[in-house]
Amino acid sequence: MVRSQVQFDEATYEEVRRLAFRERTSFSAAVRSLVRRGLDSGEGRRRFARKAPLSFVAAGASGRGDISERHDEYLAEPGEKR
Question: Within a domain: residue 35?
Fold first, then answer.
């Protein structure tokens, strides 16, 4: 298995947490199951196929050289246009 980090909004996190509790499984197993179901349904492939591959590359060129170290600080800045 490959380790990954994902961020959820509060409502989604709580919904997945409750699902994991009901199914008596771990949060991670619930996320894997939901992702697998989404991919198996074909919806994920249809949704991403509409976008040009790698259309996001350089979309956020900010001119800042320390984005990888300070991304959380920059994302938390209020009023910044992204």
Answer: yes
